[in-house]
Sequence to fold (570 residues):
Amino acid sequence: MKIISSIQELQADIKAVKAKGKTIGFVPTMGALHAGHKSLVARSISENDFNVVSIFVNPTQFNNLSDLEKYPRNIERDAEMLGAIGCDLIFAPQSEDIYTEDELTGRFDFDFAGLDKVMEGKFRPGHFNGVVQIVSKLFNFVQPDKAYFGEKDFQQLAIIHYMVKALNINVEIVDCPIVREESGLAMSSRNERLTPEQRKYAAEISKVLFESRNFVPDLSPADLTVWVSGRINAIEGLKVEYFEIVDSENLRTVQTWEKPAVGCIAVFCGEVRLIDNVRFESMIN
Amino acid sequence: MKIISSIQELQADIKAVKAKGKTIGFVPTMGALHAGHKSLVARSISENDFNVVSIFVNPTQFNNLSDLEKYPRNIERDAEMLGAIGCDLIFAPQSEDIYTEDELTGRFDFDFAGLDKVMEGKFRPGHFNGVVQIVSKLFNFVQPDKAYFGEKDFQQLAIIHYMVKALNINVEIVDCPIVREESGLAMSSRNERLTPEQRKYAAEISKVLFESRNFVPDLSPADLTVWVSGRINAIEGLKVEYFEIVDSENLRTVQTWEKPAVGCIAVFCGEVRLIDNVRFESMIN
Fold:
């Protein structure tokens, strides 16, 4: 397995792979890889001839410098895991090779039909502009046939699907299910920042989300929203930033259970911000 | 020369061309081709192995249904010209193959560092969103090595350069000079809609623009702006919508002649809206 930081070198390798007619699978990551990432890479390897993982803590998607600084990094351990499962290439560029000075001052702006204005977009202004820009850049560098994303970042995935469709980008987006720790806690690089005690509290998030499904369709989405937030806020050390039950496609808040919906949550566990989600199937067939 | 309307058929042809290692040159147009377009295609042919011209009157970049309806169309004559000079493929898709219903209702929005908010962007709200979206889609369909654009649409070109850089799109954008009629009138498909008398008035636009260069650096950009607008408004049948002298790169209005600038104008000649521009070199070396 090769680790490349130069864009030129990457592009030369990609060209050589394409010339041989091989398909390329791609998993963009910010490193600090866990079992969730591993499942994406394993799926990519099972479906493509040549597999690329990018490791880049993208500054433009952080709206909080402290969060950016504290984001865990461990490229040696990441490389070890990726080499062991059969990844072909790690692309780990430097920020100054990816962005011009102008781009870093955040002048780029997309607007995806309001998809980027709710939930994460509301609480992390500019976040999805940064995500979309880096994903576009990486797609253009790597030129993958398929790219793999986890459903933990549900809103991100909806926005990437929208972008790929709106621009007819020649990449197939593959949605991959959330991978959870034994306790139910959704895998996240940010979990590394939790104390053992916080980990116990954090595990309650998914328990409440799963339990909430039992109240459908008896409680309305609005009432269930209140119930979930109340239950999680009642747990020591947890503070809900938002919980919303939205249409799985357009991410608009739902009033009834007529269409497939997803409940998306962001919770502070101490200083660490965690997200998770749960699907609610449509009650009308 | 082949004329293709199906995206699938186009993509199969492009794949075959790429498999042979041929380079692809691309000229996106809205048809009603004139000598300006011809110069773009001729340059593309001189620099690439396989040359594609798209003909598509893109609805999402019109902010005025009457302008869309009145936009001249003449694909038979276009095809004749393109075949004669050696174009390989015309891609002439239908709107319903390019856009979903949602996309046609105009939910897509880019924001390019304010480049899209001035001049054409101010008077044709949504115009550049439509341009950028169709250019992105076409680039993804055609996958060209180089794409050719005319400098008559100066702002459009600045925005396309910005997009390609911001997203690291693998297409080289080639800027091509304005082609003018003998009278000095910038070539435009819209000129077809002018009466013989209007054509005479319209020819004055470029004359005033060229004359204005003689006042640099004696008049300030602000004073020269007033002079140009006044001169053109004094001509029968012409009404200036805007004239602005802007920095060639960031399109912000300039106060001095320190940096290379461009004077961009939109003028109504009866119902027909014409644009043109003139470059002012920097007065500081």
